[in-house]
Amino acid sequence: MEQQFEGKIAIITGAASGIGYTVAHHLASRGARVIGVDLSDSVGALMAELPGKGHHGIARNLTAPEAAGEIVEETIRVAGVPHILVNSAGVALLDAAVDVPAARWQATIDINLSASFYMAQAAGRVMVDAGYGRIINLASQAAVIGLDQHAAYCASKAAIVGLTHVLSLEWAPKGVTVNAVSPTVVETPLGKKAWAGEKGEKAKREIPVGRFAQPEEVASLIGYLASDNAAMITGSNVLIDGGFTTV
C-alpha cells in the first residue's frame, strides 16, 4: 500500500533536480505540501508545477549557517511546522587523494555534511517541540566502502551516517526519527552523464543486480521512511545498492 501524506509538510533540499526533485514529486503526488530548497532560482517554478497545491520554493545557499533557521522560519510562515525533512542537496567533487585541493575538500564538507546538519538541527528543534518528525539524510554507498578519487565524498557521506546515529539517539524519545539512505549510482540526468559509456557498463557489471538505481526507487524508500509506518525505524543507514556492498 502506498504511503499517503495528506496534511504533512515536507522540506526537501536539492529539490530542483535529481533525487531531490523526484522525492518532491513523490511526496506531493501523495498529498504532502512540499517546501523545496535549492541553490537554483528555478526551484520556485518547479515546485509550483508539482501535483497538488500550496508548494513553495526557496532559493538559498545552504552552506551559510544561518540559512537553515531562516528556511524553517519561512516554512512555518507559509505552510506550518514541518513534519518531514529530506536532506538531498549534495555534490561529488572527485580528485585523487594526493591532489584534493583544500577548497574542494572544504566545499564537499560544507555542502554534503555541514548543510545537512544545519538543516536537521533547525528542523529538529521545531519537530522535537511538536513531538513528531521524520528526517531522512541522503548518504551513499560511499559511506561504507572506499571508492577511487572519492576521498572528500566518502568522508562526507560516512560522517552523515555518524550524524544520523547521534540525532536518532537524541530525538527518538521526542517522536522524531532520523535515518540515512545510501544509494549506489542513481540514473538521474547527472548520473547518466557521469557514468556514460564503458565506465558505466563496467560499474553495472560490479553490481549483483546488474544495473544502477532509478530515482523513483530511492524516492519510494524515502517515502516509506517518512511515513507513519516507519515509526519504529530510526538510526538506520538503508543501502539501496543492488547488493554491491555485500560482495
Task: Give a brief outline of the structure.
The protein has 247 residues and is an alpha/beta fold. Helices cover 43% and strands 15% of the residues. Helix 4 links the parallel strand 4 and strand 5.
Structure description:
It is a single chain. With 247 residues, the chain is an alpha/beta fold. It has a single domain, classed as Rossmann fold (3-Layer(aba) Sandwich). 43% of the residues lie in helices and 15% in strands. The protein has 8 helices and 7 strands, in the order E-H-E-H-E-H-E-H-E-H-E-H-H-H-E. The protein has helices at residues 18-28, 43-48, 67-78, 102-130, 151-171, 189-194, 197-205, 215-225, and strands spanning 9-13, 33-38, 56-59, 84-87, 133-138, 176-183, 237-240. The chain has a 7-stranded parallel β-sheet, sandwiched between helices. Helix 3 packs parallel to helix 4 (102-130). It is globular and about 45 Å long.
Reading the helices and strands in chain order gives EHEHEHEHEHEHHHE
CATH architecture: 3-Layer(aba) Sandwich
At the fourth CATH level, what is the homologous superfamily? NAD(P)-binding Rossmann-like Domain
Strand content: 5-15%
Order of strands, main sheet, comes to 3-2-1-4-5-6-7
The major sheet is characterized as:
7 strands, parallel
What is the CA–CA distance across the termini? 32 Å
Going by helix content, strand content and strand pairing, the class is alpha/beta
User: Helical residue percent?
Assistant: 40-55%
Query: Would you report the number of β strands?
Result: 7
**What is the number of helical segments per DSSP (H or I, 4+ residues)?**
8
Q: What is the total number of structural domains?
A: 1
Per CATH, the class reads: Alpha Beta
